[in-house]
Amino acid sequence: MHVELLVPDRELWSGEAGLVIAKTLDGDIGVLTDHAPVFGILAEGSLVRIRDVPGQEGPADAVRAAVSGGFLSVSDNRVSILAARAQLGSEIDAGAVRSDLDAAVAEAGSQAAAEESPEARYARAQLRAAGEQT
After folding, report:
1. Same domain for 107 and 54?
2. Which of 19, 25, 29, 69 could join 51 via S-S bond, C-beta 3.0 to 4.6 A?
3. CA 59, CA 37: separation in Å to the nearest integer?
4. 42: which DSSP letter?
């Protein structure tokens, strides 16, 4: 199936895949070839995994991307991921993101019991996309 990952100003990634895994507000979804049409809202600060076509050489996850909100649309063996912000795991500077995460957590300060900020959730997603533990 054809997959495209788009942000407002450009196409971040496009290609063929065997499986797409994403987290929506309704829960995790895995999309294989011939999946029924679906439209979902991506969870804020989540990870999208695009896996290779079975039988092809290469790593299991061809693409790992952090997304900060957006939509997932599936129709006619096409998956479109439209994200407000997104970054491919291979392009992430984990050190800089850790600094951003530390700043976001420090800014929350005494609000530790409250829900984590969107900036902190996105930073954690970036670290997961880069293969780091959060």
Report:
1. no
2. 19
3. 27
4. B
